[in-house]
């Protein structure tokens, strides 16, 4: 039977994908350029960029260096290449998830996921970029496996091995999943995946990625960084970590020997990393810790339920599907658990988790919603309303983070208002060129006085309006009403004195260089 074009391609779905992709192209530059400290980072990322110029053989992160080599054909300038690489990787991650959506439900799920991570530090301040590269490969590997494109799956798993060394063991296991999937099918279907695997295996044996120093250096630096963060190590963790390993493990230079050198120290390091993992994840996603933990537990429980169900029914392929995803999750968390849960390691974990969530949603629909929707309709609607209200509540809880952000700005208006409130004045008559602050001070006896209201000499103006706070900025130097006032000039030159018994004093607690708070003293 021949399929019509409309049978194979959902035109409405692809229209949605196209519009979503165009929307991303419009809004991504605004999001990514909004980072306050965008700059070139040395060490890791610069090393990958530089190694592409002298690419020889299969070294650490060879696939990423080769990818940089291809970019060098387009962007000759290394600075342009550095930032263009970042843009390409972010766009690639978005493109992959939008493209692999099979229906509107999956498109909604992936779009929600992308909107969550794109604005988070996982993407906005990602460093190094290689983890975004590996995350794209992880998404493609999972997609090709579940769509039974096993040759592509083997190839992507091999490339992933030379991006992140912790996936070397996964590549070795990859053929087991392929073989068991195709065992009862045509032997011809095994030929191409077998050739790809054997070729990759030969290269991996000759140039074993796990034999390089990268894994050891990562553990060394992050072990020291963890202790540095807890105030237990005071030297530079990135350049002096060998000393700490020698002190705690009694050996340096060989990761395997180091890990076996002091089990209690290793266990403490891993336990602290697991604990920090959930906290860092919640912080980066801007979600409460309990919410993140609940979603992860429910998602994993759904997959365990699916696994048990398929084992009981003796469905080998479906059982392998669950084991495959758990295996991938295990290897994705190695960096966060063995090294340290740095932001960029978490992205890999979330890529796998979103596939868990997708499979959990499908299981829920098949096992519960379709069969028992009418019976539990009221409860399902109520659950939907509760979930909606929960997200609305989470959305408006962001005002606390906005307040903290405002307080951290040295010259922010919020910090200015809080400083004046701290003065605890009974009455406030404030001369402010920046606008009225009284509404934010919680003081009923507060009056906003604006510089343009001055129609007399400076001293008379202060006395008549009972001004007891002056916000001093460069505004007064630019306004002729004050610049040409001899009394105002004398006021500034005499260290803010009005007469023999009255003067204004600067609030030293307020450290903004562009603005001073002057309080009247008598």
UniProtKB/TrEMBL annotation:
Signal sequence bounds: none
This protein's UniProt keywords: Membrane, Transmembrane, Transmembrane helix
Transmembrane residue ranges: 82-101, 113-146, 152-183, 190-206, 287-309, 316-339, 345-367, 379-396
Organism domain of life: Bacteria
The protein's name in its UniProt record: Glycosyltransferase RgtA/B/C/D-like domain-containing protein
């Amino acid at each position: 039977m021949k399929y019509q074009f409309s049978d194979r391609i959902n035109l409405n779905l692809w229209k949605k994908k196209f519009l979503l992709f165009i929307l991303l192209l419009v809004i991504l530059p605004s999001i990514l350029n909004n980072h306050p400290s965008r700059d070139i980072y040395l060490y890791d990322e610069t090393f990958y960029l530089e190694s592409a110029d002298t690419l020889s053989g299969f070294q650490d992160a060879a696939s990423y260096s080769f990818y940089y080599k291809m970019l060098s054909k387009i962007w000759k300038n290394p600075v342009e290449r550095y930032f263009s690489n970042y843009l390409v990787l972010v766009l690639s991650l978005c493109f992959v998830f939008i493209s692999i959506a099979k229906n509107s439900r999956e498109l909604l799920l992936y779009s929600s996921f992308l909107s969550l991570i794109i604005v988070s530090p996982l993407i906005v301040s990602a460093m190094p970029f290689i983890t975004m590269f590996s995350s794209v490969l992880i998404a493609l590997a999972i997609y090709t496996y579940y769509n039974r494109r096993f040759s592509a799956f083997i190839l992507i798993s091999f490339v992933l091995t030379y991006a992140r060394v912790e996936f070397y063991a996964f590549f070795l296991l990859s053929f087991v999943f392929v073989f068991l999937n195709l065992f009862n099918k045509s032997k011809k279907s095994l030929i191409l995946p077998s050739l790809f695997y054997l070729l990759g295996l030969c290269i991996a044996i000759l140039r074993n990625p796990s034999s390089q120093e990268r894994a050891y250096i990562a553990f060394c630096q992050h072990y020291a960084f963890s202790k540095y963060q807890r105030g237990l190590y005071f030297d530079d963790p990135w350049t002096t970590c060998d000393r700490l390993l020698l002190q705690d493990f009694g050996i340096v230079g060989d990761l395997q020997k180091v890990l076996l050198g002091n089990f209690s120290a290793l266990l403490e390091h891993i336990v602290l990393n697991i604990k920090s993992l959930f906290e860092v994840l919640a912080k980066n996603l801007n979600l409460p810790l309990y919410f993140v933990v609940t979603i992860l537990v429910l998602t994993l429980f759904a997959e365990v339920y699916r696994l048990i169900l398929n084992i009981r029914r003796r469905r080998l392929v479906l059982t392998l599907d669950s084991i495959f995803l758990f295996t991938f999750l295990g290897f994705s968390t190695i960096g966060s658990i063995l090294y340290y849960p740095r932001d960029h390691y978490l992205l890999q974990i979330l890529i796998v988790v979103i596939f868990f969530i997708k499979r959990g949603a499908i299981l829920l629909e098949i096992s519960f919603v379709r069969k028992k929707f009418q019976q539990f309709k009221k409860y399902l609607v109520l659950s939907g309303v509760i979930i909606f209200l929960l997200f609305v509540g989470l959305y408006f809880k962001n005002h606390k983070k906005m307040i903290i952000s405002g307080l951290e700005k040295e010259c922010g208006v919020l910090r200015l208002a809080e400083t004046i409130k701290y003065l605890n004045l009974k009455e406030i008559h404030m001369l402010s060129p920046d606008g009225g602050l009284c509404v934010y001070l919680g003081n009923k006896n507060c009056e906003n006085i604006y510089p343009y209201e001055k129609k007399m000499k400076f001293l008379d103006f202060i006395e008549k309006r009972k001004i007891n706070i002056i916000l001093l900025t460069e505004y007064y130097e630019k306004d002729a009403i004050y610049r040409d006032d001899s009394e105002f000039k004398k006021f500034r030159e005499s260290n803010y004195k009005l007469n023999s018994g009255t003067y204004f004093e600067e609030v030293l607690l307020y450290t903004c260089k562009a603005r001073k708070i002057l309080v009247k003293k008598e």
